[in-house]
Amino acid sequence: xxxxxxxxxxxxxxxxxxxxxxxxxxxxxxxxxxxxxxxxxxxxxxxxxxxxxxxxxxxxxxxxxxxxxxxxxxxxxxxxxxxxxxxxxxxxxxxxxxxxxxxxxxxxxxxxxxxxxxxxxxxxxxxxxxxxxxxxxxxxxxxxxxxxxxxxxxxxxxxxxxxxxxxxxxxxxxxxxxxxxxxxxxxxxxxxxxxxxxxxxxxxxxxxxxxxxxxxxxxxxxxxxxxxxxxxxxxxxxxxxxxxxxxxxxxxxxxxxxxxxxxxxxxxxxxxxxxxxxxxxxxxxxxxxxxxxxxxxxxxxxxxxxxxxxxxxxxxxxxxxxxxxxxxxxxxxxxxxxxxxxxxxxxxxxxxxxxxxxxxxxxxxxxxxxxxxxxxxxxxxxxxxxxxxxxxxxxxxxxxxxxxxxxxxxxxxxxxxxxxxxxxxxxxxxxxxxxxxxxxxxxx
Amino acid sequence: xxxxxxxxxxxxxxxxxxxxxxxxxxxxxxxxxxxxxxxxxxxxxxxxxxxxxxxxxxxxxxxxxxxxxxxxxxxxxxxxxxxxxxxxxxxxxxxxxxxxxxxxxxxxxxxxxxxxxxxxxxxxxxxxxxxxxxxxxxxxxxxxxxxxxxxxxxxxxxxxxxxxxxxxxxxxxxxxxxxxxxxxxxxxxxxxxxxxxxxxxxxxxxxxxxxxxxxxxxxxxxxxxxxxxxxxxxxxxxxxxxxxxxxxxxxxxxxxxxxxxxxxxxxxxxxxxxxxxxxxxxxxxxxxxxxxxxxxxxxxxxxxxxxxxxxxxxxxxxxxxxxxxxxxxxxxxxxxxxxxxxxxxxxxxxxxxxxxxxxxxxxxxxxxxxxxx
Lengths: 444, 373
Known about the structure:
The complex is a heterodimer. By secondary structure, chain A is an alpha/beta fold. Chain A is built from 13 helices and 17 strands. In chain A, β11 (292-297), α9 and β12 form a beta-alpha-beta unit. In chain A, α5 runs parallel beside α6 (212-228) and α8 (266-278) packs parallel to α9. The N and C termini of chain A lie far apart (56 Å). Chain B is mainly α. Chain B folds into 2 domains: 8-280, ABC transporter involved in vitamin B12 uptake, BtuC (Orthogonal Bundle), CATH 1.10.3470; 297-373, no CATH class. Helix content of chain B is 69%, strand content 2%. Chain B has 17 helices and 4 strands. In chain B, β2 (172-173) and β3 (176-177) form a beta hairpin. The radius of gyration of chain B is 22 Å and the shape is globular. The model of chain B is unreliable at 367-373 (pLDDT under 50). At the A-B interface, α1, β2, α3 and α4 of A face α1, α2, α3, α6 and α17 of B.
């Protein structure tokens, strides 16, 4: 309406240039969605896997370790390096020549530990890079979000580090598989050890990270400790990434509780544990008993962050590099040779997941997801560091031994931070699939 | 004038814009950006930035809390999917409306101040919303896990009309699935409508008043002109754009997470607008596309991709070049974006649009007539 000059002319011209550029390339370039399944590699000489890990944010350390493990797995599957667990895993169909003779290539993406970013990154891998399988992640929220996306897209998702029951419970999906253990198993494994160490007459106080994993963890520990005869004094929810937990720890001092359960992970756990120790909780006597702290989910990377404070503290873990079975040793050796330090439990679970997928495709003889899912369901294997393991068909959860660990009092090196107290046998942590509900849905 | 009351020049621009947007999947594929998810993001964030520009570009009020409206739009849309219907029309309408109502409340309070105080107020509001969504309102927002559409949701409207429930509930437009390219075209049509409204606002007497408020609000007040209703309307309009963008995010991917409301998301739209060109019509869209391109494509260049890209060099030189380039791509994409932002703010205060128009002008001056197409 008016005679404002602006740079409208400029805009106009730039628009025209862009428009002209649009006509140039061929019009009928289309992703071949109409094939028999999403991202069928067909006759290509290589196949692409998508590694979706947190590279920035609170879980970036875990993400970096996961990516290292995946790169190692790709090497081993392609027949490079010393082969790692390919030498110990049984039964094994992989031949060290890629998957079904196709060389494995990979693309990476940053989940930023945000559901949105993780889904965008997974979508890019599926839609643009033609990834046939997505794997990785270090948070249950992200795992659940990406798992349902992959289910919709018809691409297999091999979850990385995710510990919430919901991943293979309420939110389980036909296309999603989890090797890592869950809070139900943590509770079942920790219960008897807590009874033996601290007795039947205890009062617990929970501090819980306020999201799916925290809720799940709190529920499981409550369930198993209350079955022992423990009382739960209070369960307080703390925001994720709070940084300062002093306002949550002060009330613990006068609550009458004699055990503090920290349902925290990553930097939250490092901060809350450090502050709890600084507040002198561990020196306190309550109800005539020594005050105790329990961290249900432990990892070496967290132990490194918490330093001195973790000494003697009990928790559970999926795997630790100090295990002396052949599978663990082979993996620690080739990881150490490649990167110069031992792998974390996140690295272990991701490495095994990549191998399991590749092996299942080899077993099925096709990349067709429904056949691969069939091969994975009920698959029993050994030699991957956790003893005999089974991928249960009814919920796609792996069942294996669980480690109860304790912060090492006398570490022999900067990595020797966790001491295995007990290897809890698989039978003790097993539960019926109906317990956690959910529905897998169907394939294709 | 005839074509929706646009001047000839604007009508031409509208046509070119429409054509360029609709053919995005084609002309973006040579640079690796022509896949459905990313073109959807271009359209959605483009809409978000165009709306933001109506407030920031015209009135000069810098809001640091626009992500709150994006989030409100998303949550409303997902609830519409859960309770009413998987059809996207009610979701988009309700999402836009809810964000608009929300903007009335926040705008009414925040607009009592200008400048930095206004920015801080909106930032505080947005952060409040984020924290509410993240923990306090967990029953409504499902906290950190994010709100998702489930098979067993009631969907009263759908069940009343007897629409058959699919195993995997996805947004649809009267039966057309809103995933992939069809989802993009739906977003693109919304973007084109949004752009058209924006052009009309820029050229209207209302737009003139907003620009006048930007240049000297005090003087306008002295002449007896009550500026606040105008700014509030601009604020609400731009909030509704954000709400629509948010609901489109839910349409193409039925999920809403609290992180959409975080202050970084609010900061991102400010960056987009400034990168592209504040107060220009197409600038915000360019800025949005650039940032999303960086986030999705640049961040994915890992070491092996780089080694491939420089494989034409002899071996030692290849590793040397990769070592230098690597910190700037992959997880270092923020670094490159930051550097680019500094360069643009220092040398091209008018953003990318200024850069393009300067280029075109220079080529025009050097005599060649066929420049600029």
